[in-house]
Design a protein that fits this description.
The complex is a heterodimer of chains A (about 475) and B (about 90). Chain A has about 475 residues and is α+β, with helices and mostly antiparallel strands. Chain A has 13 helices and 22 strands. Helix content of chain A is about 30%, strand content about 20%. In chain A, strands 1, 2, 8, 9, 10, 11 and 22 form a seven-stranded mixed β-sheet that branches. Chain A has a six-stranded antiparallel β-sheet with strand order 6-14-15-16-13-19, covered by helices on one side. A three-stranded mixed β-sheet of chain A has the order 3-4-20, with no helix packed on it. The radius of gyration of chain A is 22 Å and the shape is globular. The two termini of chain A are about 25 Å apart. Chain B is mainly α. The chains are: A alpha+beta (about 475), B mainly alpha (about 90). At the A-B interface, helix 2, helix 9 and helix 10 of A face helix 3, helix 4 and helix 5 of B. The complex binds flavin-adenine dinucleotide and iron/sulfur cluster. The site of iron/sulfur cluster has 15 residues of chain A, from loops.
Chain lengths: ~475, ~90
């Protein structure tokens, strides 16, 4: 890491200046430095390892806006994003799954140029390379825990163990606070140190405020350290934006680029929790041990999730005494997620207090989410849950019979009826065949801001495969 | 004193809290300030007093009412306070 306390102004230059040190930025740093290029990675957050503590410290030190960001609109969706060296990979569940072939085909059908930009075979090769780099493995039986095994039983065998980049996982279920055991291959402990060994330099605590564009070509980035100093970093070959979707769009807005951010999409999630007759957190369990794509034709993905106390308690209904009573039973509470390949498009907008996201699912999206909640609720009851809390406004707070679960699927869709959250974001920023954004030379976008649509699966593996192809091309250029 | 304390202690009994002002970004604190104004407006409307002067039972009752409110905007506030209260309590 660059030795500066950030209080003085700094001028730097490198072949490639990369904004953001998460999945996309670290992948680019890894492969560009391996190709012998000089690389500078600029990161708004601080080093992650120092902050691997309990919920409060983790949320304020590792996350953007202390986990409290929300979209605007009646369906207000909670947005979770990392903000530290390693980006969201530090707090991610480490599930690695490549985009399905039919989603890629959809991209190609919408715009045939995607076939040259991201040839499927090259993507798969890049994906295999990243899997080897991060030691991706199938979750072993001993880390399924009650939640994973329960999802498998509740869905009558229609679930499979996840593939995760966590070769040293001990099943603490604390991925969302950063792994306390160093068991996860987050990029701060894998790709970034390897890039640094090849000469890359990482500058933490520096927020890039704008990209300097002269005569239609990006030449430098201007940033500010949290300690007050300024940074000007010039790029000899290109500036790579990997500040996440929608962080990259916000940066484009601040740099004077117009007409970006209209294609915002998410892979929203809803939690269903239930009270079981057996302890749900007794043995080890990986954060996401089991998943099901049995309902992928309806855009649904179902997954088990083991959570730390503060996150699990958020899924328990009630406030005050009612919440307190239920919290006494916390070890017996389990929770699963339903995620949707939502079709709605929102917009990243520029406002007085910074960028904000306008987003509302379509009625079809809402209907599908209700269906997913109903499936999970029924699965929990089948797995002997004593009561299930579907969290749907207008439905009973507690359900105990499968018929009540089925009734949820039949409810009329309503705005804001279910609490949504998402950490899988896409922006549809227009790029050319060199991944240069919005017709600006040497301004490359390498994160999921360039994805034209929602993948319907966890995005990190695809983000890394795409960033690998982008780095291979620019590294060889 | 942490200005959100009356709200957070009504949501999570025994919430001790931390020095939130230092940790949350100014934007979050600004929205919290605005959200407290909404809460106080409801407290005045239903109990003719600001939220911090209500009894613990009345505070809890008001929060339960708001968490089931027909408006998704109001429900979302309670969801947000609950999230922040739990994260900062643990
Ligand atoms: C809680 C959580 C769980 C997740 N679980 C999974 C999972 O199991 N599997 C999966 O595939 N995906 C998961 N994801 C999503 C996945 O981690 C992200 O999609 C992926 O990391 C995005 O990569 P990125 O490089 O685009 O952005 P990030 O990894 O978010 O990195 C962007 C970085 O850029 C920095 N940055 C932003 N703006 C600026 C600026 N102006 N100047 C300097 N730096 C800036 C940010 O601080 C951040 O560190 C999860 C995400 C979260 C938050
Ligand atoms: S489940 Fe626990 S041990 Fe496993 S990777 Fe996540 S935080 Fe680390």
């Amino acid at each position: 890491m660059l030795a500066t306390d950030g209080s003085k102004d700094v001028h730097e230059s490198a072949d490639f200046v990369i904004v953001g040190s998460g999945a996309a930025g670290a992948t680019c740093a890894r492969w560009l430095s391996a190709a012998g290029r000089s690389v500078l990675v600029i990161e708004e957050g601080g080093p992650a390892r120092a902050a691997r503590g309990e919920g409060y410290e983790a949320s304020t030190r590792l996350y953007r806006n202390g986990t409290s960001a929300m979209t605007w609109g009646r369906d207000a969706m909670h947005i979770l994003q990392g903000r530290c060296v390693g980006g969201s990979t530090v707090v991610a569940g480490a599930v690695m799954e490549m985009m399905p072939h039919d989603v890629w085909q959809e991209w190609v059908q919408t715009d045939p140029r995607w076939e040259q930009r991201l040839p499927w075979d090259d993507l798969m090769r890049a994906h295999e390379r990243m899997d080897a780099e991060l030691a991706v493995e199938k979750t072993p039986r001993e880390l399924w825990g009650e939640g994973g095994a329960g999802l498998l039983r509740g869905l009558m065998g229609q679930a499979t163990p996840t593939w995760r980049a966590a070769p040293g996982c001990q099943g603490s279920g604390r991925c969302f606070q950063g792994c306390p055991h160093g068991g996860k291959s987050s990029v701060d402990v894998t790709l970034l140190p390897r890039a640094e060994k090849e000469g890359a330099r990482v500058i933490p605590w520096c927020r890039v405020e704008r990209v300097e564009i002269a005569d239609g070509v990006a030449v430098a980035v201007h940033g500010r350290f949290s300690a007050g100093g300024k940074l000007v970093a010039r790029a000899k070959v290109a500036i790579i934006l990997a500040a996440s979707a929608p962080g990259t769009v916000a940066l484009l807005h601040r740099s004077g680029v117009k007409n970006v951010g209209q294609g915002f999409q998410v892979h929203p999630a809803v939690a269903v929790a239930g009270l079981f007759p057996r302890p749900m957190s007794a043995g080890p369990e990986a954060t996401h041990a089991m998943e099901s794509f049995a309902f992928r034709d309806q855009g649904l993905k179902l997954e088990s999730v083991r959570l730390p106390t503060s996150s699990l308690a958020q899924r328990v209904p009630g406030v005050g005494r009612q919440l307190d009573q239920r919290m006494q039973q916390l070890p017996f509470i389990g929770s699963w997620n339903v995620l949707l390949r939502a079709e709605a498009r929102g917009r990243v907008r520029r406002g007085l207090l910074g960028s904000w996201i306008q987003y509302a699912p379509t009625d079809e999206d809402r209907r599908k989410l209700l269906k997913g909640i109903a499936i999970l609720s029924e699965a929990m009851l089948l797995d002997e849950a004593l009561e299930v809390w579907p969290g749907v406004h207008g439905a009973p707070e507690t359900i105990t019979r499968p018929k009540q679960a089925q009734d949820i699927a039949a409810m009329a869709p309503q705005a804001g009826a279910v609490p949504l959250w998402s950490a899988h974001l896409f922006c549809g920023v227009p790029v050319d065949d060199q991944f240069q954004a919005c017709g600006i030379g040497k301004l490359v976008v390498a994160d999921s801001s360039l994805f034209p649509s929602n993948l319907g699966v966890a995005p990190a593996a695809t983000i890394m495969a795409v960033a690998t192809l982008i780095s291979d091309r620019w590294g060889a250029a | 004193m942490e200005p959100m304390k009356p709200v957070f202690t009504a949501i999570v009994l025994g919430w001790k809290g931390r020095d939130l002002a230092k940790a949350w970004p100014w934007r979050v604190r600004f929205y919290l300030f605005l959200s407290r104004m909404v809460l106080n407006a409801y407290a005045l409307k239903r109990h003719a007093r600001p939220f911090s002067l209500l009894s613990p039972v009345a505070r809890e009752g008001l929060l339960v009412y708001l968490s089931r409110h027909p408006s998704p905007y109001v429900r979302r506030l309670v969801r947000w306070w609950k999230q922040l209260a739990l994260v900062s309590a643990c």
